[in-house]
Each structure stands twice: as structure tokens, then as C-alpha cells.
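Work Package 4 report. The design task specified in the project plan requires that, given a folded chain encoded as C-alpha cells, an amino acid be chosen for each position. We show below one input record used in the internal validation round.
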């Protein structure tokens, strides 16, 4: 089964956790020093926010699947439609290990299509969340896989 994914960059994490918790009438499923995520069933969405030194607003959209087979099906659809695709493969981002790829829509909106394999205790597999946020922080450094991606697909962990 598929789940819609939205990742929004915010400037005040606590204020936004309070807002979205009230709006969704649910507490986040995961909270870190720079990140929060709601895994809602109605509507079925993976809604994440982070304060990682980015311009505020929608960072990227996506489709999260429950199985490797579903991800293969989505990837095949993208390839058959001749969509430009950046395959990250197995990666670590947003406190999770995932298998993912990216496509970019005609407006330049990055779409992440992914299968989550498990949680990890750090944002991108390299630096702890406690190292701070902001453009000058080492936490905001690009992952090696993201460096090779087209600029518009660098939505998650750059």
C-alpha cells in the first residue's frame, strides 16, 4: 500500500509540532532535535518537518511504499514514461534507512519514491542530530549520493 509523503522545512520546530499536532489531532510518531514525523492513517500520509537550515516551505513530495516489489513497480512506471530518474539505492536520510530514487516534475518539484527499511538514530547516517542546525553546520553537508543527483532532486539530505 502506498502512503503520500510531504516534507516541510520550518523555522521553529516546537511551534510547528504544536500546530500540526493540533491540526492532525495526533502527536508525532517520531521527534528529534531537528525533525518530527507523523504517520497518519486518515489521511494516509507520512508528514515530516525539519529545521535543518533550509528555506521554509515544502521541501519535497513523495510516495512511500510498504514493499520492495511496490518500489520496483513505481520505478518501472517512471522508466516506461521516460521520466528522468536519480536512483540513490540504499541510503540513510531523515532518521531512516531506505531504498529510494528521485524524479523531478516539470515545475522542478522533487518527488522521492522510497521503501523504508528501518529507523536510525541520526538524520543522514553520518552526523548526530545534536550537532546543530543552520547552513554553516556540518549537519547540512551533502551526502555523497546526493552530490551526484541533479540539483532539483537534492531535497532530503542536502
Amino acid at each position: 500500500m502506498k502512503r503520500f509523503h510531504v516534507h516541510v522545512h520550518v523555522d521553529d520546530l516546537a511551534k510547528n509540532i504544536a500546530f500540526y499536532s493540533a491540526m492532525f489531532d495526533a502527536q508525532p510518531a517520531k521527534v528529534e532535535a531537528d525533525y518530527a514525523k507523523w504517520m497518519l492513517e486518515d489521511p494516509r500520509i507520512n508528514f515530516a518537518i525539519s529545521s535543518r537550515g533550509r528555506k521554509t516551505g515544502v521541501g519535497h513530495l513523495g510516495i512511500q511504499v510498504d514493499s520492495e516489489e511496490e518500489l520496483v513497480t513505481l520505478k518501472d512506471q517512471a522508466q516506461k514514461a521516460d521520466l528522468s530518474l536519480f536512483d540513490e539505492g540504499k541510503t540513510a536520510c531523515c532518521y531512516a534507512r531506505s531504498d529510494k530514487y528521485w524524479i523531478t516534475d516539470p515545475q522542478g518539484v522533487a518527488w522521492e519514491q522510497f521503501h523504508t527499511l528501518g529507523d536510525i538514530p541520526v538524520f543522514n547516517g553520518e552526523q548526530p542530530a545534536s550537532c546543530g542546525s543552520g547552513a554553516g553546520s556540518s549537519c547540512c553537508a551533502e551526502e555523497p549520493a546526493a552530490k551526484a543527483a541533479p540539483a532539483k532532486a537534492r531535497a532530503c539530505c542536502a
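The longest helix spans residues 68-80. Validation will be extended to a larger panel in the next phase.
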